Amino acid sequence: MCFRPPEMKPPKKCPECGARNPGMKTTCKKCGAPLPPAMIDCPHCGIPQPEDSKICANCGFNGKPGSGNPAKSKEA
To answer: What is the value of pTM for the model shown?
Structure first.
């Protein structure tokens, strides 16, 4: 379900020390703490998902037209 090229990931803020880190980092460059995964909203249901998810855990949307549970759509 990734809709953003890897080089365009927004920066991440470290929850421990507050340092800004490049979006592709998994640990803080300053203190080494683990960084939270980048999140995007599912275009079908609107629920935040990890950016590298292939299928939405809430509605099952996989990026193809017609996929996803219609009852869980943002329009439902």
So the answer is: 0.58
Length of the chain in residues, anyone? 76
Give the structural domain span for 27. 10-62
DSSP assignment, residue 26?
Answer: S
Check whether 76 has a pLDDT greater than 80.
no
| Measured distance CA(1)–CA(11) in Å, rounded | 19
Position 72, amino acid:
K
Are the beta carbons of 61 and 14 closer than 8 angstroms? no
69 falls in which pLDDT band (50, 70, 90)?
confident
Domain count, the chain: 1
